[in-house]
Structures are given as structure tokens and as C-alpha cells.
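Long-time lurker. I teach an intro course on protein structure, and each term I like to show students one example going from raw sequence to a predicted 3D structure in C-alpha cell notation. This year I'd like something fresh instead of my usual example. Would anyone be willing to generate the C-alpha cells for the chain below so I can use it in lecture? Attribution to the forum is fine with me.
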Amino acid sequence: MSNTFGKFLRVTTFGESHSKAVGAVLDGVPPLMPLSEGDIQVQLDRRRPGQSAFSSPRKEQDTISILSGVENGTTLGTPLALLAYNKDQRPKDYSSTTDIPRPSHADYTYKKKYGITASSGGGRASARETLARVAAGAVAEKILSHFYSVEIVAWVNSIGTITAPDIDMNSITRTMVDAHPTRCPEPATSKEMERVLLAAKEKSDSLGGVVNCVVRNVPAGWGEPVFDKLGALLGHAMLSIPATKGFEIGSGFQGTKMPGSKHNDQFVLKGSELGTLTNRSGGIQGGISNGEPIHFRVAFKATPTIAHPQKTVDYQGNEVILQTKGRHDPCVVYRAVPVVESMAALVLADLALAQRMVTGQ
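-- Reply from a regular --
Happy to contribute to a lecture. Here you go:
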């Protein structure tokens, strides 16, 4: 099992959905950087359950503790250990899945790979695991903001068939995103999303959606061709998040419908540096950042664990009707927003440290 991500900033996560705790160890955090538990807690509060009428009712404060690597509010350059205890476990809610693999969940594949599965909640396949990613990502984001003034903002662009109109990526802020429970910054669209989410919840069903993300102020030159291209690492990071089904950079799949004469980003002089007139490349060319905002989209499937009765079979192949209990979101995208931001931060902080090895800056 691979639980470590990154080369220069390495994060290893641990813990299961209903274990005593979840957490992360980061190695490679630069010394002499101000860091507090409050810096991390902000993002964890955005990810935690129980935030709205259509969020999981699991009651977790997700309080983070820094166990090592920081002294008097300053990083030491030594491994940083982060821990959050699980407080509201209900493993009995998953007794119905002991002998029945949930459709489209990881119960079956984990059992085939390891010969055993966690007794409740999906174990490492549960979205509970993303708490550790967000904690580590908040540290990575502090590195990016402290040394490079990099800004990362993600938001919900669609839920089910409801899609927001184009949003100005240069001006969008997390305050705008968090003003709405769906984390869609367009008020009318957010209200419509709330309506379809509550309807899905009443039917014991679920919906999927798309999270958009923009990263501003990334200098040109980050990315390690040919196998660790910036886009490739972002794709790796995003597709490792539970429930992801697709990833696009810049114009994405729509760009395939345009001829090169229309799709190419014309270079222009912006101050003392070259820039592009358009940004269909999404801020990445040749696997390296070009100085323009990086923007991408991540698609999430509908939550697979639902209380709606489903025809399936048990591990012996006997036909059964599965109706799961447990506490689950009817859609994951609004809680996935800080997860997407955090994984983007881990990728970019790692590449920033790699670039220091190349240029010394």
C-alpha cells in the first residue's frame, strides 16, 4: 500500500474511518517558518462533517495537534507529526456490510487485494482519510504563501445537472466560496443546488459534481519533466482523492474541439515578463508552470454508500437487498473543496522545493 506522497516534501498519512485517530507525518518542511495549529485548523473546519442540512451528521471537531517539528510557533526543519482523534465512531452502523460488498465502494477490491477489510466505514477507502491530507496540505499551503505568495481557491462548479455560469478566476476568494453551504459562489446556482441535494437526501440517494480550482502567483518554471510534469502530478494528486472520476487542465476535453489557430495562447509582454493573452493551457506548458494562473477541474461521482435499497450479492454470490445505515453526505463535492486545495498545495510545495535545488531560489 502506498501512503506516502511527494519527493522533497513527503507526507505519509495514517488512520482508518473508525480507528482511534487519523494523522500525517511531513518530512521536508523548511525551518524558520511560522506555524501554529490554528493555521491548520482553518482548513480542517472547512472539511469536517455536520456543517449543513445536507452534510453527514457525524459529529467530529477534527481538532488537530502538532506533536513534533514546531517549537515556539516556528518550524524546526524536522519531521512534523499531526494527529486528530476520532470522537464519534459508530462501527455497528456498518454491520450490514460485513458480508456484503457495497456497490461501487472499495469493500470488494480491498478484500481481494489484502484478504481483509476494515470492519467498519471503509477503513482507508473512506473519505475520513482526507482529514490527514487536509492537515498536511494546510502546512504545504503555509509554505507556498509564506515564501511565494501563492493563492489557491477551489469551488463547486456543478452538482448533478446544475452548473454554475463562468466565474472570474482572478477575483474569486474563499470568503466568496464559503458564503454558501454548497460552496458554489454563484448565489442563484447555489440555491438550486441546495434544492436538488435535499431532494436526493429525502430519497436516500446521492449526487456527483465537479470542483474547479485556480492557483494564482505560481512563478514560471515549476515542474519536473518528463515524468513529474506539473499537470501529471496534479492529476495523480486529484485522482487519488476518494470518489474522483475525472481531471482536466485548462481547456480540457473541450479544447480538443478547437483548431490550433484558435486554441493556441498568444504570447504578450506583461510588465517585464512574457505572459499569454488567453489561458487555454491552464497555466502549464510542457509540464512546467508558465506564470499564468493554473486552473483545473476535478469530477466526483455520487456517494456510493446510500440508504436506498440496492440489489446486489454477498461475498458468496447470494442475491440480497442492501440498505446501509451510517452517516453519509448525499454529495461529497462541497466538503471536497478543501481537499482539492490541499492536494494542489502538496504538489506545488513539493515542486517549489525541487526548483530550489535547480536554481537555489
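Some talking points for your students: The longest helix spans residues 333-359. Helices lie at 37-47, 107-114, 130-148, 174-178, 187-202, 230-239, 260-263, 333-359.
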